[in-house]
Amino acid sequence: MRIEEGKYLVKLAETSDEKEQVYRLRHDVYHKELNLIGKNAQCEQEYDSYDEICDHLIIRDVEANRCVSTFRFLSGKKLQGNAGFYSEQWFDIGNLSRQRSKVLELGRACIDLQYRNTKVFKMLFAGVGAYLKLYPHDYLIGLTTVSCNSKQHIRMITEYLINKKVVNVSFGIKPKKHFEINEAELRGYTMAAFTEREVFSKMSTLMLAYHKYGAEFISEPSIDVDFNPPVVDFFTIFNTEKYPKWVS
């Protein structure tokens, strides 16, 4: 698959050099910007055991000859035995666990700081659409990270998702006990207490895009202490039949 627009090329990473560029970009974003704690922090690359079985979508600046954005795809068809998705470290995916072969997990989304513009962002999602045409799956899942500045902000987002009826309860997905946030701490706001603009200002750019493209979310987020300070992850799910055709 190839999508070309101006100086940008969207494709899958094919060579070891392209994959190393992916890992270096992820290191710059996750370790240097977001303070991800843990292994590989000192080796200038960010990778884990899932990377070997994943496809890596990349956007290249062909003029500068560099990888400027990436998205990781993990198909449930590639999971062996009792292995689960990356997101299953934090969430019990309920009935979706019986349909893993129909699921594509999106992860490790990042864009080089110098290339964070609307064009690159839209091309990243166009790449997702193109991949789905080649390798159809019924569901897209992933973790959408939000900075945990305060529980008030997380409550605000949670109540907004519930009010807009974009909360998925059909699969019984919930945070694993060790990572859950007390549900009582996530309630206490009504829509009258804040504006939509205020909510959007607390969401990450990725979460806003997912919401715009028709994603559903699990109302109970998990806490991710692998970052300093910790962040909050909302489990996100798309029915691919509703994935907007204009991005592919």
From TrEMBL:
<comment type="pathway">
    <text>Lipid metabolism.</text>
</comment>
<keyword id="KW-0444">Lipid biosynthesis</keyword>
<keyword id="KW-0012">Acyltransferase</keyword>
<protein>
    <recommendedName>
        <fullName>GNAT family N-acetyltransferase</fullName>
    </recommendedName>
</protein>
<keyword id="KW-0443">Lipid metabolism</keyword>
<dbReference type="InterPro" id="IPR052351">
    <property type="entry name" value="Ornithine_N-alpha-AT"/>
</dbReference>
<dbReference type="InterPro" id="IPR016181">
    <property type="entry name" value="Acyl_CoA_acyltransferase"/>
</dbReference>
<dbReference type="Pfam" id="PF13444">
    <property type="entry name" value="Acetyltransf_5"/>
</dbReference>
<dbReference type="GO" id="GO:0016746">
    <property type="term" value="F:acyltransferase activity"/>
</dbReference>
<dbReference type="GO" id="GO:0006629">
    <property type="term" value="P:lipid metabolic process"/>
</dbReference>
<keyword id="KW-0808">Transferase</keyword>
